[in-house]
């Protein structure tokens, strides 16, 4: 076992802390029918994890952690809604799993009133799940939703392979995709928060086991070395969390300055928001030739990209691409990306992009609006944009159009409807309010440029002495050109 491998294993451990020492010689575990090599490998890897968890000293490794899920079985509990809804959720989970790099072997949906508190799917179904896992040769089970540490543990014990939840999966995708220093820090923070909660559960069970085994172990003596280590780990994690929070606050400050700068120059801003994979980056590229990464993968974009664009009448505005949303985005991630999404709370217009070819566009719209609400952007002007009309079903599209009559239909791929969209953006961008009538001397061409860019020109004439302009501009610019105001008799 190489050192490199070792740290990889620890990385896996980060998201799915397992009980460290007890499992290998746990008699119950040994009695389980061995599903061959897989089980053997699993035990080996567990054994490896034991030694490695001490390496938690370097918590920064969480940043680079990947689950490396390979062959997975998906499980979801279906509590309400139609069969179709349940299937859609499952397909989304599949897309998420594939984005994380895994091969989906099978998917099981369990109908229940509530997820089972002990085993999520209900103890009767666990055996069935185990059979599917063994027969497909899966190495991982991914559960939809967010499971408690105890549920994850119980399922792992009884199914015999690694079990992760949707939250861990999404965190993993974010970790793989984060590019900027800030994005990485945000994901790491969310991962550490997730990990910290899991450590707590782990600590509880450990202390019980240690106490049980060294049966004299009540009171002080009952604090096994494992528990002490966990507490050390938790302290380290807490320390790292507060470091990251500091770092992020600083970076947030820098961004706020940049944003304030744009605001002072009164450049209107448009933020492109929407469900992951809706085509936000494609649309940004279409509107600005920005060359932003477009991928048929969820969460391709994690770092907000801002580009300048110009309306037909020459006004400059900014367009910002944002991280995609998804149903039940882990709260920690919403929290972590709050600063990134702050862009949206300041935007003059939100372009809410919807994948018109998705089976449940209204569900996507609702999920996105929920996140917008969470970050405090619910009162921003919103323009719905139904994208991918080239591949959407015509009938479904017609129905959708009735449901959201104000939406604009486009295809970022073919360019269809994009001109309409430009026109609507232009109409909905805030128009500068102060009317000015000025004669700008030739030497101040910079001011003429600014009026072009930041204001709206009503009339323009070239005179011998300079440029005569009637325009509507923002108050800041109005003040700067005030010295060149013309009176009626100069007209
Ligand atoms: N057929 C069709 N496909 C599109 C259209 N717009 C985008 N796509 C495809 O949809 C996929 C996702 O596009 P992106 O632009 O990366 O979507 P996004 O919303 O930025 O996704 P994330 O950043 O992952 O949240 C890519 O495979 C695009 O080629 C469209 O109008 N028609
Ligand atoms: Mg994108």
Automatic annotation (TrEMBL):
Q: Could you identify this protein by its name?
A: GTPase HflX
Q: What does this protein do?
A: GTPase that associates with the 50S ribosomal subunit and may have a role during protein synthesis or ribosome biogenesis.
Q: Which family does it belong to?
A: Belongs to the TRAFAC class OBG-HflX-like GTPase superfamily. HflX GTPase family.
Chief location category = cytoplasm
Domain (Hflx-type G) spans: 268-434
Compartment(s): Cytoplasm
Pfam families, per database record? GTP-bdg_M (PF16360), GTP-bdg_N (PF13167), MMR_HSR1 (PF01926)
Annotated region Disordered: the residues are 1-38, 206-231
PANTHER family, A to Z: GTP-BINDING PROTEIN 6-RELATED, GTP-BINDING PROTEIN HFLX
Listed Acidic residues bias regions = 27-38
Q: Looking at the record's lineage, which domain of life comes first? A: Bacteria
Q: Which UniProt keywords apply?
A: Cytoplasm, GTP-binding, Magnesium, Metal-binding, Nucleotide-binding
